[in-house]
Amino acid sequence: MVLKNTISLKYINKLAIPALISGITEPILSITDTAIVGNIPINAVESLAAVGIVGTFMSMLIWVLGQTRSAISSIVSQYVGANNLGAVQNLPAQAIFIVTSISILIIISTYPFASQIFKLYNASSLILDYSVAYYQIRVFGFPFTLFTMAVFGTFRGLQNTYHPMIIATIGALSNIVLDFILVYGITGFIEPMHIKGAAYASVIAQVLMAAFSVYFLLKKTPISLKPNFPFNSEINRFILRVLNLFIRTLALNITLYFATRFATGYGKTYIAAYTIAINLWFLGAFMIDGYSSAGNILSGKLYGAKDYKLLVELNKKLIKIGVLVGVLLAIIGLIIYKPIGLLFTKEIDVLNQFYSVFWIVLIMQPICAIAFIFDGVFKGLGKMKLLRNVLLLSTFIIFLPVLYVLDYFNFKLNGIFIALTFWMIARSLPLLINFRKQFIPLAKNY
């Protein structure tokens, strides 16, 4: 037994709340850019649209290659549960070396073709120009982001979410301050850089986070960042998990690509409203993801210790907590329904489109909670193949057909977010059924 008799809410929160704070850093960076760029006095709608398009593409890159975090976390946590950490002590450095090397190739292969990439999202004219300018700066923060995410995975495997929270807070606060300074400028000192300023602010924040990640990992853990060879015996399992998550995340980003492409095709007012709504959806998702991270961390440890009874108990508590958080987010969103839109833009047409779909974003929150909780639990268990198959089916069998049907009937933004709701339902139910079928019998025999 890893833990004595039960897993208390206090213990779950000890891991979940710092993970929640660190998890919302990326959407806060995007939301900060969205809010500040959306209030630029010149071409605000075009700037807002560009940030949304680039944000979707950057999220795809980060999520596809950032899966090293979950793969490292699941392996390390299972070895912690088995009381055999020394066997994988050199694995994180090797994994970080691999992913950061790939990130350099991504920069080289996408930077010259930024215009062609964003034309695929239906961007044109000034929106396309802004998208290219914003991306060709932000992409240089990509290796630092992947490095930080891999370090976060190592910390999580070690059952430590506190130091990632500190690092993420430093990144978020520095980004907010730099956004105001670089976007709007300081009279007599710094000229306003508008959308380029937002990109520079993000890159600087990502570099700071990577630097603090190095410091805390070396000071607070027995893990080295110096890659040594030959590769650890677990590297094959690590690569296989990353590949499964890679395919899974491609499917996830196909969903986001089509959602963004359709919104852009409806016109600049629609993509601007979509940008606000999807960033708020990301924020809610990452807030729930704090408990998903706790599920990842603890399920890996309990699975490694073969403590199936506590694993089932953990799962039941996480579902209750996640749904409660989702309902609270929906209620808060209803209370601040009108003011929240005004934080991002004063354009009446954009606000009207945003208000017409925000209610769907709020209804989705409890459904998202179940999906994200099980995502975290199954990542901790190392069941990446199942996660891959569920997302492939929910994307190609549910989301895309629903999206096209609703587009045919001219639902526009409402159609996009209704399709996303069905997508989340299709992601959560199979995982719920599989977990109960697999682990409840094991818990009874434990």
UniProtKB/TrEMBL annotation:
Predominant location: membrane
Keyword Iron in annotation: no
Organism: Seonamhaeicola aphaedonensis
UniProt keyword annotation of Transmembrane helix present: yes
Subcellular localization, as worded in the UniProt entry: Cell membrane
Family, similarity comment: Belongs to the multi antimicrobial extrusion (MATE) (TC 2.A.66.1) family.
Gene Ontology CC: plasma membrane
Keywords: Antiport, Cell membrane, Ion transport, Membrane, Transmembrane, Transmembrane helix, Transport
Pfam families assigned: MatE (PF01554)
Entry membrane topology: Multi-pass membrane protein
GO BP annotations listed: monoatomic ion transport
Lineage: Bacteria, Pseudomonadati, Bacteroidota, Flavobacteriia, Flavobacteriales
GO function term, MF aspect, one: xenobiotic transmembrane transporter activity
Name of this protein: Multidrug-efflux transporter
